[in-house]
Amino acid sequence: MPHYEDHIERVKKLATFIAKREGANVKIVEKAAELHDIARNEENHALKSAEIARRILEKEGYEKEFIEAVCHCIEAHSFSSGVEPKTLEAKVLSDADKLDAIGAIGVARAFMFAGERGRSIEETLKHFEEKLLKLKDFLYTKTAKELAEERHEFLLQFYKQILKELSEVQNVFKA
What we know:
The protein has 175 residues and is mainly alpha-helical. The chain has a single domain (3-174), classed as Hypothetical protein af1432 (Orthogonal Bundle). The protein has helices at 3-22, 26-35, 45-59, 64-76, 88-99, 103-117, 121-130, 142-174. Helix 5 (88-99) packs parallel to helix 8 (142-174).
């Protein structure tokens, strides 16, 4: 299974868990999780994914209210989309997606993505600084904040360790 599909499955499981603990509509959250990255390689993928999801859900005969709820979740899930989640379900999906970007899985995903794009370690660490290390501060639900503590701590320790090792290598070569 490609890592994209793995990501979808992990986000769906996290979102379902959070939804149940927080009292959100599980059906909306699960469908939104399944479709949230359908346009992952597009610019502003959250908005494009919502457009595609709307067409899919209409074709499958879902009710308008359900479709709009799912599409709002998708539009608002991305850290960089600029759409603020207005519903509990949208907050749940946003949190689940962010949780999958931190911790050991987040580190692995960051470096897999870097490898696909030909980015260096230093460029990937810049992504940590600009986004990944900030994600826990943008979580909405109590459940997600609890889950994020250990994941964020691992991410931070990894980041510090890799900076230390890079610094050591640079100092050895200077000597």
